[in-house]
Specification:
Layout: E1 2-7, E2 25-27, H1 34-41, E3 50-53, E4 56-57, E5 69-73
Length: 79
């Protein structure tokens, strides 16, 4: 299965991982969750605040299927 994953703001540096293809996709041979994808990219779980799966809020334990789109955001501060 192949999923598209986008890492935003301070997490964007993890997108340079060698497992991602030029389209920003990761491939999995079997069942996987968003947590599995984040771990594979080396994203520290404590740095993840919001997760979206196909444009809808999700959790790290959400199961993935072929062609899913995942967005992962860190906590965002401002003032």
């Amino acid at each position: 299965m192949k999923i598209e994953i986008r890492l935003f703001a301070t997490l964007a540096s993890y997108a340079d991982h060698g497992d991602m293809d030029s389209d920003g996709c990761l491939s999995f041979d079997g069942p996987a969750t968003i947590r599995d994808a984040a771990r594979r990219l080396g994203v520290p779980e404590q740095d993840i605040k919001l997760v979206f799966l196909n444009g809808v809020g999700a959790s790290l334990d959400s199961s993935l299927k072929d062609k899913d789109r995942v967005g992962i955001f860190p906590p965002i501060g401002g003032g």
